[in-house]
Design the sequence.
């Protein structure tokens, strides 16, 4: 389903970042969706306090990077080695230097005499004698699902999202907020407004500081106190905030797979489109908390090729955000996508899953654009026709997240409120997950208004009430 006023999937968003009623001219390979987030500035100007209101809708983007047109010569970064002119022999590596890596897609070098033979088609490479497996929570060597193995990453890794990295000590005191929270829950009655005001406006590092400070000063557990003093969806939202993004994701995964049935939407929300660092942090925290491997629980709840799809995702072999968009690689991926879907009888599902699960957002955007240019069809249409069920939903999630993460998150928020009744579990988790980054949340609000021609705050007011409504509005940036 295409969005009115939104360019068909496979075309990059327009350079201005705001969606037009007529499709724009195609941009070059890898042009980002609103560069830097052109719904609102990506970062507030220097000196603006955390949690301040974003600039009015439609303001000129702040610090949006300019992309060179496709085919223009790339300027090497400062200090990078100069490339030899075309036709010149490559420079000789100094004696003792490691051998250069073969280009992406080139056949692997021949194994030395006496090396073990490769495994069967589609099998992971054999582990050498005495080689130790990678520690749990760290990326293992890529496995060849369906004969496809992603390239080794030689680019700077994408840092973990805020709240997913190692614990940090920040130069900020949580004493006043910890005391305010205790006063709001002590004695007869509960001051819900203070709970919302204190918790809904903090970033993940501040929440962790408040949680630790509350325990240190009052010798009590903040999460347990909130559970005893509140209820309903207000309690669910406050607990999601107090746990922080990583712990909340881990609990959401466990609850989604606990008991009969699996809540596939939760698996999609938590695991798809994530960086390798975030995936590894989620796996490690899940194992620490529940003493079980996340891969084993996912494997036990999914089946067949959908299970293999999520095993690729959990392998954390996605191209880092710093990996470039190489036109020759994009062309190869486009041809492989076509040959796996429209170009044959039947569908090679794992090939498509492998490509969308191991490419970064810029590369996915370039693949979708090039596919439309080459075959005059949107990738979303192809996926809808060739797939069904949970795998279709998961592939569409990865495609849309790569094309425009702000518009995709806006659509997910609407999906949680559309139809008969509100999907409160999804609404709470999606609002809280987006609210951790205030500039990201502002861009999502701008995308929502552009897509649905209504204000997100007004839409939430129509679906919630009471303190639950106040918490959701505070999380999207409305004054408490």
Sequence:
């Amino acid at each position: 389903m295409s969005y009115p006023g939104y360019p068909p999937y496979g075309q990059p968003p327009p350079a201005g970042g705001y969606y037009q009623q007529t499709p724009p001219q195609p941009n070059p390979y890898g042009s980002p969706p609103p560069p830097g987030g052109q719904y609102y500035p990506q970062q507030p100007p220097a000196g603006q306090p955390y949690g301040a209101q974003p600039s009015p809708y439609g303001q000129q983007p702040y610090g949006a990077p300019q992309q060179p047109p496709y085919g223009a010569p790339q300027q090497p970064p400062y200090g990078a080695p100069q490339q030899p002119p075309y036709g010149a022999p490559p420079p000789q590596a100094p004696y003792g230097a490691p051998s250069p890596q073969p280009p992406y897609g080139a056949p692997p070098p021949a194994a030395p005499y006496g090396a073990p033979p490769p495994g069967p088609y589609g099998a992971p490479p054999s582990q050498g004698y005495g080689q130790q497996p990678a520690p749990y929570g760290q990326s293992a060597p890529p496995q060849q699902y369906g004969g496809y193995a992603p390239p080794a990453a030689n680019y700077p890794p994408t840092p973990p999202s805020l709240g997913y990295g190692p614990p940090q000590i920040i130069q900020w005191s949580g004493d006043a907020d910890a005391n305010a929270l205790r006063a709001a829950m002590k004695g007869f009655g509960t001051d819900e407004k203070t709970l919302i005001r204190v918790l809904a406006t903090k970033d993940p590092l501040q929440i962790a500081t408040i949680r630790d400070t509350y325990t240190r000063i009052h010798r009590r557990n903040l999460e347990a106190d909130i559970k005893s003093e509140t209820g309903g969806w207000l309690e669910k939202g406050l607990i999601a905030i107090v746990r922080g993004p990583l712990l909340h994701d881990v609990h959401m995964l466990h609850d989604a797979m606990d008991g009969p049935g699996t809540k596939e939407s939760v698996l999609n929300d938590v695991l798809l489109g994530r960086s390798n660092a975030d995936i590894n942090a989620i796996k490690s925290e899940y194992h620490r908390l529940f003493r079980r491997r996340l891969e084993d629980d996912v494997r036990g709840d999914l089946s067949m090729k959908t299970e293999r799809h999520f095993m690729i995702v959990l392998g954390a072999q996605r191209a880092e955000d710093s990996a470039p968009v190489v036109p020759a690689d994009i062309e190869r991926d486009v041809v492989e996508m076509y040959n796996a879907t429209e170009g044959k009888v039947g569908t090679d599902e794992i090939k498509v899953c492998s490509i969308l699960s191991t490419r970064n957002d810029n590369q996915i955007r370039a693949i979708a654009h090039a596919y439309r240019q080459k075959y005059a069809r949107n990738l979303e249409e192809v996926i809808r026709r060739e797939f069904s069920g949970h795998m279709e939903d998961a592939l569409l999630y990865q495609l849309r997240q790569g094309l425009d993460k702000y518009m995709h998150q806006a659509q997910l928020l609407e999906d949680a409120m559309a139809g008969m009744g509100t999907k409160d579990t999804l609404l709470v988790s999606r609002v809280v997950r987006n609210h951790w980054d205030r500039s990201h949340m502002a861009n999502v609000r701008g995308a929502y208004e552009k897509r649905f021609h209504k204000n997100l705050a007004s839409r939430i007011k129509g679906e919630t009430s009471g303190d639950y409504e106040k918490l959701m509005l505070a999380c999207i940036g409305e004054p408490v």
Remarks:
- Residues 1-10, 13-31, 41-91, 93-152 have pLDDT under 50 and may be disordered.
- The chain is about 50% helix and 0% strand.
- Residues 406-475 form a domain with the Annexin V; domain 1 fold (CATH 1.10.220.10).
